[in-house]
Amino acid sequence: MLGLGTDEDTIISILTSRKSSERMRISYFYRLEYNDQFDYDLSNELSGNFKKIMLALMTDPSEFLAQTVSDCINKKNPIDDSCVISILCTRTKDELIAIMNKYITISGQTDALLNQIDAKMSGDYKIFMRTMLTPTRCQAPVRCIREKGQVNLTLVQENIKLIPKKPDDCVVSENNQGLMTMMAKDSFEQLHLIISEYERKHNSSVTEAITAHCSDKTLAQAYNTIVSYAKNPAGFYAQVLKKSTEGFGTDDTTLIRTIVSRHEIDLAEIKQTYKQMYGTTLAADVAGDTSGYYKKALLALIGPQ
Fold it and tell me: What is the widest separation between alpha-carbon atoms in the chain?
C-alpha cells in the first residue's frame, strides 16, 4: 500500500489464504514495522464492499460478530431482529461467551448486551433472548447454555411433548417455560434428536408446529432458526447464502458475514450442501451477483468446488 496505488490482488491473495490467527499476526508485525494500524491503512486505501470484507477478515472472529450484533441492535430502528437471531441463535456456549466478552470490550460496559436486549426488545422474545444468554456458564443445578455435544437420550421422549400443539403452549409464563428453556439451553445435538424423533412420530415438521402456534412472530423466527440450524447446520447456511444473492439486489452484509464467519468452520461442507440443494455452485451464484475486487475476494474465500 506504500507509494502510488494499492495492489489489491496481493492483498486478496495474502489475506484470504490465511487463518484468522495468522492475519492477526500480520497486523501485529505490520504495526511493529510501520508504526501504523494495518486495518486503518486498509480502510483508507480501499472502498465499498471490498473494504468491508477485507476489514472483516482483519477483525477477530468473535469481535466481528459482536460488532455486527451491536450494529444490528443500535444502528437500526427498529432493530434488525433477523440479524441478531441469525448470529446468536446459532452459536454454542463457548461461542456465545466469546461474543459476549467482546461485546463488553466494544461497549465498555459489563452486561451491555443484556442491557440492550432489555431496552430494545419486548415480550416473550425478550425473555427468551435473556434466557438463552444467561447464565453463560454451567453451574448445577442451573441448566447449561448450549454445551456442545451434550446429549441426554432419556429426555428425548419427554421433550417431544414440549413442541407446541396449541397457541398457549408457546406463551411464556411462570408455569410454562419448558419449550423456551429447551430452545434456549439444549445443545444443538440434543435438539437434533428431539426434532428428528418428533417428526418421525408425527409425520409433520417442528417448524410447522411453531409457525402455527407461536403468535409472537419474532419468537417464532428465533425458534425456527434454531430448529433449522439444529437439523442441518450446512443446509441452514446454504439457505442463508442463497437468500442473500437471489432476487433484486444482493444482501452484501449477510453475504460477507456468512462467508467470513464460516470460512474456517464449515464452508467446505456448506458449498457441497449448497450444490445439492440448488443444483448450482455457491461460487457461480456469488460470481453472478458481485463484481470487481469484492467478487475476487469472495471467490478466493469460497475456493474451488
Answer: 68
In contact, 120 and 79? CB cutoff 8 Å:
yes
**Could you tell me the three cell numbers for 88?**
446468536
Mean pLDDT across the stretch 108-136?
89
Q: Which three cell numbers stand for residue 95?
A: 461461542
Query: Cell digits for 156?
Result: 428425548
* Distance separating the N- and C-terminal Cα atoms of the chain: 31
Structure-block grid coordinates of residue 138: 454451567
CA 89 vs CA 51, 69, 282: distances in Å: 28, 12, 24
C-alpha angle 80-85-87 in degrees, rounded to nearest 5: 105
pTM for this one?
Answer: 0.92
pLDDT digits (tens, 9 = 90+) for 241-295: 999 998 778 999 999 999 999 999 999 999 999 999 999 999 999 999 999 999 9
Of 291, 245, 244, nearest to 86 by C-alpha is 244
φ, ψ of residue 176 to 5 degrees: the values are -140, 75
* CB environment 139-164: b (16+ within 10 A), e (fewer): eeeeebbbbeebeeeeebeebbebbb
Q: Is 36 left (phi over 0), alpha (psi -120 to 50) or beta?
A: beta
Return the C-alpha cell found at 224. Answer: 425456527
Using H for helix, E for strand and C for coil, what is the string for 79-108?
A: CCHHHHHHHHCCCCHHHHHHHHHHHHHHHC
- Measured CA to CA, the distance from residue 198 to residue 206 in angstroms comes to 7
Which residue is associated with the grid cell 476489514? 55
- Integer angstrom CA distances of residue 23 from 58, 251, 260: 6, 26, 13
- C-alpha grid cell, residue 274: 449448497
